[in-house]
Design a protein that fits this description.
Helix content is 70%, strand content 0%. It is mostly helical and 217 residues long.
Length: 217
């Protein structure tokens, strides 16, 4: 298999691996609620090592995908912005995997809810990741290399939904912490933002990989 095709395939792998493993682990983790708890909390408590590995491997796959995109996109803004956003998101995922978040919203069970420096670093990495996931679909939605109208619409909606779900998750988390709404759907909204963002990455990688394969024939 040619190197560029392999690098583009890493985007498909990341787009499938990260959200699927998050959902499966969250649905089967004792004491964890997909409705209530954030995705990052799976990196703590029982089986926390699994999501640590998921974030780190997923981040490295995004870095490889960035290299693949840089090879196939024609010269222009998209060829610079898309790899930059993927590198930012990939590095943020690696940091989020290595530096765990703080206990919150009753998970892990029995652990006091505190705010630490590590938790703040993790939160900043998460912010960078969601910003990258929101901005990335908007890059190919402009310019002469945007593709079909359907792809442009899908990309714009993907970026908008990532922003909407991520912001709503943050609001739900604050309402829950303050006791206004309990249990608030912070976890569900955050997982939805990740699912939309990584679904777009999967589709984009598949499109580019297919286009590259045709050009190499």
């Amino acid at each position: 298999m040619r190197p560029t095709t392999t690098l583009l395939g890493c985007g498909i792998a990341a787009g499938v691996l990260v959200p699927v493993l998050l959902l499966i682990d969250g649905a089967t983790r004792p004491g964890y609620s997909l409705w209530h708890n954030g995705a990052s909390q799976l990196g703590t408590g029982e089986r926390g090592w699994l999501q640590t590995a998921n974030f780190v491997i997923g981040g490295l796959l995004l870095l490889a995908f960035a290299a693949g995109i840089r090879r196939v996109l024609p010269p222009g803004r998209a060829a610079v912005r898309a790899p930059f956003l993927l590198v930012a998101g990939g590095l943020a995922m690696v940091v989020a995997g290595i530096v765990p978040t703080d206990p919150a919203l009753g998970y892990p069970p029995g652990r006091p809810e505190v705010v630490t420096t590590a938790g703040r670093v993790h939160g900043l990495a998460g912010l960078v990741l969601f910003a990258a996931l929101a901005a990335l679909p908007l890059v190919p939605a402009r310019g002469p290399h945007a593709g079909s109208r359907g792809w442009m619409i899908y990309s714009r909606w993907s970026g908008a939904l990532v922003i909407a779900f991520a912001v709503a998750a943050g609001v739900a988390f604050r309402l829950d912490v303050q006791g206004v709404v309990r249990p608030a759907p912070a976890g569900l909204l955050e997982h939805a933002a990740l699912l939309v963002g990584f679904a777009w990455i999967t589709v984009a990688a598949a499109r580019l990989r297919r286009r590259n394969a045709v050009s190499e024939v």
